[in-house]
Amino acid sequence: MTESLIHFHPQGKLVALVGNPNCGKTALFNRLTGGKQHVANYAGVTVERKEGKLNLDNNKTLRVLDLPGTYSLYPRTPDERVTCDVLRGVARGEKKPDQLVCVIDATNLRMSLRFVLAVKRTGIPTIVALNMVDEAKGRGIEIDVSALSKELGLEVVPTVAIARDGDKLLKQSLNKVISKDTSSSALSTNAALGEDAIASSTSHEPEHQLQQIESDHARVQSILQKLGLDEIVFHTGSDRLDSFLLHPVIGPIVLVLILFTVFQAMFTWSTYPMDLIKDLNEFFKNEIINSFSPGWMTSLIVDGVLSGAMGVITFLPQILILFLFILILEESGYLPRAAYLLDRLMGSVGLSGRSFIPLLSSFACAIPGIMAMRTIPNMRDRYVTMLIAPLMTCSARLPVYSLLISAFIPQKTIAGYFELQGLVMFALYIAGIVAALFVAWMLKVLTRSGRQVRPLMMELPRYRWPNPWNVFIGLVQRAVIFIKRVGGNILLLTILIWFLASFPFPIEGQTLQIENTFAGILGGYLSVILGSIGFNWQICISLIPGMVAREVAVSALGTVYSLGAIGEDGISSALAPIISQQWSIATALSLLTWFVFAPQCLSTLAVLKRESGGWRIPLISVTYLFGLAYIFSFIIYRLASYYFQ
Amino acid sequence: MLTLDLAIANQKYRIAQLNSKLDSAVEQERMRQLFELGFIKGESVILLRRTMPGSDPMVVRVGTSTFALRKAEAQTIGVEMDPT
């Protein structure tokens, strides 16, 4: 994606934002570029390089690159590697930046300034953006900007990334710098110097590197002393909050309550918008059926597109509610605390708390989750986390769960507060988590590397009120990604399934028997194997496109069943009542179980291959998930058949 | 030498040295990482809480930043009482 952007405006100068994690760099990037990027308060969430455009005076345009946050220019994680590669000008598809903006946290100069000194040594022209000056002022930290600028030998501009016009001064400076024609000879010598600075830092001379950090530290101390800022000011509010949220007893209780609230909200809040979308969909279907003569074209639109792809859109509200909570938790700074609370649990299965964030993201979708694993420094931890991530219930499985739960689980309130349907959903999520922990534990026991102690060293940023604008941007992005998927792959697959389920098309006067179509034949073969776990041929048909994207299984079922219904009485009805009549509860439970483990979609496999650098991890992943899915569905099916007889 | 994991909670200390055997690659890496985060000789450090069972992990403030550290990591950080 980055490369195609370069292609569109390659002539503009390239400005890169660098900084420590949690310095508000991404928020500033949003502010500068008008913002189409995910922002969060967790160390290392900015994994992908993101680019935007900044319009300056005189119709000039700057390309702005948001580099992953890093504590130093010694690459350790793949994340930091990206940043270092770009600064050295060796990143693929990316030229060396013409200008750097080093974003620093005004409330945490001790750490930020060390980084500034390292960045300065790259030789690339640098402006320092002194971010969060408002917060610093609120805590009584007054920074003399011009004195700091003189000490660093770099231009320093104060910014407030979360306020409108908080980037005004930075824009002005960029304007000035870019319009000034830097003499190319000066640039190239600087660049050569920078090459050396980073090259030597990546060489294996531990003594030299440590000395460098120590001397930088001493330099920062003296600068802070000169500016009268060497007094350490704490954020007492965060500490007070932590005494509750990190409490050994209260902390975990709060964490469980938060997670439980999220899942309850996903069900109760989404009822109204979901019904609205469903009603609209039905309305359009009836309109089309009433105004056009029946034929394969009408069938394609009603049974293929509307029943299938539009049916998946129904689940958008639930996905957005889940993301709303994740974004708020990220922005507020709570997520690393949750990782801290869960570190012992994760440690007992051979992982660290660092695996928590990628795994939590995997509840939304395994793909961003797996990409976030670049922030896990330990290779083994990264591989294990990759293997168990698909067991986290991704939002694509929600449509399947929702459908089956609404069809088979009665709407009841238990103990005056809990909804039975919500409880079952919660149980399914827990089942995935328990399975993931079990797999990780097995890997810990079976491999020698699993028993070593690994570093944690995770920053706990201070708490912050989530910025509504940043949360909003994040949500809009999720919605767009989801709708694009529905409009692209999912639509194509739905049409493919419709084709399989409609052809050979019956001649005039004959009704369509879905058993005679391609899909019926294919499903028949599969059901011979999967019949042992209670799957009928309709389910088997839907599993095939489900491999490409899980939520398509629902639309495929919709297509298969509504076609069957039209063949019988010409009315397409909602899916849930049909399956609740036609399937046994054992079959439904077996299918639910299948989807807890269900082999991941092809895009997850593609990401696994890319992120692990080979076919080994995706192959292991597919094999063991298929195995587990079959074994557990078999057990559940047999038990349920016996119990509900 | 007193190490950070044994320090009194909420008491101000200064980092005296990082006890690390530089011959082991793992130790070397850990020390460099601690260094980069600001665990540098002379820096002020406070053990904020070791409330988790077995004091692992613990919450530590170095300079103006707060980190969650493993016990094994805190054990490599030698500290002394801050005279001020």
What do these coordinates show?
The complex is a heterodimer of chains A (645) and B (84). Chain A has 645 residues and is of the alpha/beta class. Chain A has helices spanning 2-8, 25-33, 78-88, 109-120, 133-138, 145-152, 168-179, 184-202, 206-226, 236-245, 250-268, 271-291, 296-313, 316-332, 334-348, 356-364, 366-372, 379-388, 398-408, 420-446, 468-502, 518-530, 537-546, 552-569, 575-582, 585-597, 602-612, 616-643, and strands spanning 13-19, 50-55, 61-66, 99-105, 126-131, 155-158, 413-414, 418-419, 458-459. Chain A has a 6-stranded mixed sheet, sandwiched between helices. In chain A, strands 7-8 form a two-stranded antiparallel sheet. In chain A, helix 4 links the parallel strand 4 and strand 5 (126-131). Residues 1-9, 38-47, 182-196, 199-203 and 566-573 of chain A have low confidence and may be disordered. Chain B has one domain (4-81): Ferrous iron transport protein A (FeoA) (SH3 type barrels, Roll). Chain B is globular and about 35 Å long. The two termini of chain B are 20 Å apart. The chains are: A alpha/beta (645), B alpha+beta (84). Strand 9 of chain A pairs antiparallel with strand 4 (65-69) of chain B, so a sheet runs across the interface.
